[in-house]
């Protein structure tokens, strides 16, 4: 499964990069395949692994912020691995045609 999620601290002002970095650090230290862009962090693994990482990432932000917003989108597709790479490669292949 691939989960794309965004954790946003609320009540800490406009500059939230250091809080978001706490969440991304948890994801990167998990060892699961992941990718971060301007809007979301995507992480790939089985249900329990991925949801544990998301929970810990939220907790890292929650430890420093009075309120946290979580947006999550999941692609649940048993038996598929390396989706973070293969899905993008498929789109790029079509764009090259």
TrEMBL record:
SUPFAM superfamilies per the UniProt record, alphabetical: MTH1187/YkoF-like
Matching InterPro entries: MTH1187/YkoF-like, Thiamine_BP, UPF0045_domain
Listed NCBIfam families: MTH1187 family thiamine-binding protein
Coiled-coil portions: none
Protein name: MTH1187 family thiamine-binding protein
Thiamine-binding protein domain segment(s): 3-92
Record-stated family: Belongs to the UPF0045 family.
Lineage, top ranks: Bacteria, Bacillati, Actinomycetota, Actinomycetes, Kitasatosporales
Source organism (scientific name): Streptomyces kurssanovii
């Amino acid at each position: 499964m691939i989960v794309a999620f965004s954790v946003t601290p609320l009540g800490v002002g406009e500059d939230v990069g250091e809080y978001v970095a706490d969440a991304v650090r948890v994801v990167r230290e998990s060892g699961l395949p992941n990718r971060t862009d301007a809007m979301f962090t995507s992480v790939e693994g089985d249900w329990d692994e991925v949801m544990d990482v998301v929970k810990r990432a939220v907790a890292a932000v929650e430890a420093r912020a009075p309120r946290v917003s979580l947006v999550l989108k999941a692609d649940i597709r048993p038996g598929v691995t390396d989706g973070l790479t293969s899905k993008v490669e498929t789109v790029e292949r079509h764009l090259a045609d």
